[in-house]
Amino acid sequence: ALAPTAADFDALNSKLNAAGFTQSREFRVRQGDLSQGDQGLIQARTIVLSVDNGNLSVAGTLDASGVSGGSIELYAAQANAQGDQGRLSLAASARLLAQATQLASGAAGSIGDGGRVLLGTSNADDLAAPRANGGASISASAGALIDVSANGALAQGGTVVLRAPRVGDGAGSDVAIEKFNSTVKGSRATSIEAVKVYRAATISENADSATNLDASLNGRMANEAREYLRGQAAVVARLGRTDTQLSSGIEVRSSGDLTVSVNETSFDRQNRGWDLNSWRFGGEAGTLSLRAGGN
Residue 266: what are its φ and ψ, rounded to 5°? Predict the structure, then answer.
């Protein structure tokens, strides 16, 4: 879809709110920017806003609150890591609400549990970000609120994730988050996923090559994830967050098929497959994403 103006986007959502379209709302802009004004309001249990090659800015309210907290996902991307698109911004007036409104009456079930907020940005050309600000990056201003609160002592708080490219060559030395000064309320786990993208057709126990990634802890993926987190103290200090955990994100992309075949010929069946239990770096589990243009 072509990008609407902020005024048109807010007017559309006002009509959808009034008409009762409050279960799920998803907007995707393939080219151009998407902006919400400071008086804008989106009310739905699941809210997804994504921009394929442009900037996404939120200045109003995204309300996914309910009996249990809902889900808010915001994505911005750009085609080229050297470009000036893909910026995801929360203005000081932004309100991302995914809190529970009903008191939990017991530990079982999800009533009263807080929701989930995900902020993500990426470069389609797989390259690392050249810097922490500008281009595909996240900027969350002071004054903005992200609320994933639970309701009641028997319920659990929600989660907040910021997913952005690593900055620099090799393992990377920073993450493409200009600032994370927004208030986070009620989160049981707030994390930053610093992502490194790899291209391959296979993942196996064989050595790294132009088409294969080594699935062992001695391979390139694991070594670079481990090396990146050796500098986590400097990244966390720059962002000034004591409530946030930094983790290594690994994303493998293939324009065609992607085959994962690890230890499939092992004599011991228990050793077959890719065991990721030991893939913990800096004391924390990382994240793995697999994306294929084919199968």
Answer: -60, 140
- Within 13 Å, how many C-alpha atoms sit on residue 98's CB side? 24
Its pTM stands at 0.94
Give the three-state DSSP class for 270.
helix
Q: What digits encode the pLDDT tens for the residues 93-103?
A: 999 999 999 99
Burial class (CB within 10 angstroms; exposed 0-12, middle 13-18, buried 19+) of 2: exposed
- Nearest in space to 222 (alpha carbons), one of 164, 275, 168: 275
C-alpha distance from residue 16 to each of 20, 69, 108, 221 (Å) = 6, 20, 33, 45
Q: What is the mean pLDDT of the chain?
A: 94
d(CA 167, CA 188): 27
238 vs 128, 165, 226, 277, CA distance in Å? Answer: 19, 16, 20, 30
What ranges in the chain are assigned the alpha helix state H? 6-18, 220-229, 232-239
Q: Six-digit token pair at 205?
A: 């126990």
Given a contact cutoff of 8 angstroms between Cβ atoms, the answer to whether 177 and 192 are in contact is: yes
pLDDT at 271: 77
Side chain identity, residue 3 = A
